Amino acid sequence: MLRMRPLPPISQLNKALGSILKMGHYATALSLIQNKLQQFQGIQVNICTFCIAINCYCYLNGVDFGLSLLGTLFKRGYTPDVTTFTTLINGLILQDKTPQAVELFKKLMRTREIEPDVVMYGTIVNGLCRTGNTIRAVSLLRIMEEGSCKPNTVVYSTIIDSLCKDRMVDDALKLFSTMDEKGIFPNVVTYTSLIHGLCNFGQWKEATRMFKEMLDSGIAPDVHMYSVLLDGCTKEGKMKEAEGVLEVMIQRNVDPNVVTYNALMDGYCLQGQMDEAIRVFNTMVDRGLRSNVFSYNILINGYCKKMKIDEAVHLFRELPRRGLKPDNGTFSAILRGPFSITFLPRDYNLMLRHTTMIQGFCEEGLLREAKELFVKMEHNGCLPNDVTYNTIIRGFIGQHKCYEALILVEEMVQRGFSADASNSSLVIDILSTKGQDPALQEVIKKFMPKDGHRIQEIE
DNA sequence: ACTAGTGGAG
C-alpha cells in the first residue's frame, strides 16, 4: 500500500522555488506552485509563496497579473509585507511604469502602511536611475542618509553606475569617495561600474589605479570586472594587453564567457584584423561557449566596414541556422555598411531594394542615412515612386522633423504623387495632438490627398 | 525561503 509521504514544510518548497527563480525559470516555478497546491490540498501557502508567485507573474505576464494576485492575497486574509510591495514596485519598473512605482512607494510612505526597508528604497533608486532621473535618485539617497534606513553598498553602486552612464564620472568618483567616510564599503560591483565609466571616457590610467586599489583592499575580480578591463584595453587599441587580461583570468580560474570573447572580437574588428576576430570566435566555440547574436553583429559590422560583403552576407545567412534571430543591432550593422542593399532577397528589383533600405533607415531613426540613399537612388538610375516618398516622409514625421518633411512633400506633389492611406491617418493623429503648430499645418495641407475635407472636419 | 545594484555589438 502506498503511504502518503509527509507534507513537505512550506519553507522547503519556498527554498526550492528560490533557486529556480535564480536561474530565471519563472514558468517552472509557477507550475511547481500550482502542482503542489493540487497535490496537497491542505498545504499552507504562506506570504512568501505568494510573493514568489507575484514575482513570477511580473516577469512572465506583466505587473497587472501580479497586482491581481495581490487581490487574491487580501481575500484569503493574508497581509502583504514589505517584500510583497517591493516585488510589485519592481514589476512596475520592469514594465516601464516607474512613475506608478514611485506613486505606490509614496502612498505606502504616506499611509505608513509599510515601513520601507533598504531593498524597497534600492528598488525605487534603480527605477529612477533607469529612467534618466539619476539626480532624483541622489536626492533620495540624501533623504535616506538623514533618516533611519541608511543606504547600503547596493544603493550607492546603483547611483554610481547611473552617474557614469550619464557621463558624470566625476560626480560618481566624488560619491564613491564619500562612501569610506560613512563606513559603507565598495564591492566588486561598485568598482566595476566605476572602472567601466573611466574606461569609456579614456581615463585608462585612473582605471588601472582603481583596479589596483581594489586588489589592495582584498576584493577579487570576477568575470564582469575582467570583461570591463579587457574591453577597456581594446578601446585603447591595446590588443596585447587585452589578450593578457584573458590569460590572467583563465590562470586565476575565472572562466571567460561569451561577453568576454565578444569584447575581444570587437577589439580586433576595430583594428581591422578580421582573421584574429575569427580566431577568437573559434576559440570561444572550442571552449564550449555558444556564440550569440552579439558575436555575429560584431563580425558582420567588422566585415561591412572592410567592404567584405561576401563574408558579411555569409554570416548573416548563418544566423537562422544557429537558431539566432537578427536584431536591431544586426540591421544597424548592415544598414551602415556600403553594400546593405545586397543583403535583400534576390527577387527584389533595384527600386524595391532602395525603398526597403530607406524604410530600414527610418525605422532605425537614421534619417540622415535615409536621405542620403534617397538622393543616391536617382543617381543609381532609379527614380523614387510614391511608395518611396511616403516611406521617407513617414520617417521624418515620425521623428518630428516637420521642415524636412515639408520639402519632401512639395517635391512629391510636384511629381504628381500624394499621401498613402497609412500616412493620411498618421497625419490625422498628429493633427489631433499637435494641430496648433503652424509649420505642421503647412505640411499637413500639402501632404493630404486632394479631398481635403477630412482636415476641415477635424478643425 | 521571497524583493534592489555590475559587463559586450550598432
UniProtKB/TrEMBL annotation:
Alphabetical keyword list: Repeat
The organism's place on the tree of life at top rank: Eukaryota
Membrane spanning residue stretches: none
PPR repeat copies, ranges: 81-116, 117-151, 152-186, 187-221, 222-256, 257-291, 292-326, 350-384, 385-419
Keyword Repeat: yes
Pfam families associated with the record: PPR_1, PPR_2
Matches recorded under InterPro entries: PPR-containing_protein (IPR050667), PPR_rpt (IPR002885), TPR-like_helical_dom_sf (IPR011990)
Protein family membership: Belongs to the PPR family. P subfamily.
PANTHER family named among the record's database cross-references: MEMBRANE-ASSOCIATED SALT-INDUCIBLE PROTEIN-LIKE (PTHR47939), OS03G0201400 PROTEIN (PTHR47939:SF13)
Name assigned to this protein: Pentacotripeptide-repeat region of PRORP domain-containing protein
Organism whose genome encodes this protein: Camellia sinensis
Taxon lineage: Eukaryota, Viridiplantae, Streptophyta, Embryophyta, Tracheophyta
